[in-house]
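Work Package 4 report. The design task specified in the project plan requires that, given a folded chain encoded as structure tokens, an amino acid be chosen for each position. We show below one input record used in the internal validation round.
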């Protein structure tokens, strides 16, 4: 299936991995793994042909990434099984940059922001500008969060993807389960794309979104380079 792309202004909405923050390590991990680079071959290495080669240590959830359904669903889609048509297409930006720290984003908020614009099966980018606090102490605690009703609102519209520039791992008080936002979206085949930035640089409500994850077989998540194209 061919996808017709706009030509226009490009905005990179990906978090640069070299500048990313320390990732939270909740219970259940067999070991911690933070992003780090390692030089495997130096320019002046004997017999090295004047090359430098680096390796990376990282979780596949480091920085801006896609969570596929398999993150929570044992027989769910893995990243390499996601159709490119899901990852490229029309997206709508919900501007909720007026959120106070540690405040809810409700279904009514989303309906007011984009209810008349967002079409079934499209992609939603939720802007709060909380990305400006990435890496600060307590950034996750102070982050806005989706209420269960807001998550259900996204599911009911059959969205292909929900991206956000605030903590996707923060549960609303009284949530039915831990990691309710990501868990529920994954269970309904809605891709989750957290750790966005630069949504404040997007000038149009409707844009073309391009999300390119590493094509790794059999994984539940992968880092992405995500950009939007908006008409001039």
């Amino acid at each position: 299936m061919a996808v017709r792309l706009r030509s226009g202004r490009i905005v990179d909405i990906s978090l640069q991995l070299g500048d990313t923050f320390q990732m939270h390590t909740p219970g259940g991990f067999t070991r911690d793994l933070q992003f780090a680079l390692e030089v495997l071959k130096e320019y002046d290495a004997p017999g090295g042909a004047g090359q430098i080669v680096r390796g990376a240590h990282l979780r596949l959830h480091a920085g801006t990434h896609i969570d596929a359904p398999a993150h929570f669903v044992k027989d769910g889609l893995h990243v390499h099984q996601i159709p490119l048509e899901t990852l490229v297409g029309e997206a709508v930006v919900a501007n909720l940059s007026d959120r106070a720290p540690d405040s809810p984003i409700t279904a009514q908020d989303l309906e007011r922001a984009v209810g008349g614009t967002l079409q079934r099966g499209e992609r939603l980018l939720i802007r709060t500008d909380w990305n400006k606090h990435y890496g600060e102490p307590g950034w996750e605690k102070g982050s806005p969060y989706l209420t269960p009703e807001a998550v259900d609102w996204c599911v009911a519209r059959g969205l292909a993807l929900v991206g956000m520039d605030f903590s996707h791992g923060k549960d609303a008080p009284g949530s039915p389960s831990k990691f309710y936002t990501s868990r529920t979206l994954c269970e309904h085949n809605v891709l989750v794309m957290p750790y966005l930035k630069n949504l404040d640089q997007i000038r149009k409500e409707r844009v073309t979104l391009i999300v390119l994850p590493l094509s790794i077989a059999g994984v539940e998540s992968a880092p992405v380079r995500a950009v939007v194209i908006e008409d001039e």
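The chain is about 10% helix and 25% strand. Validation will be extended to a larger panel in the next phase.
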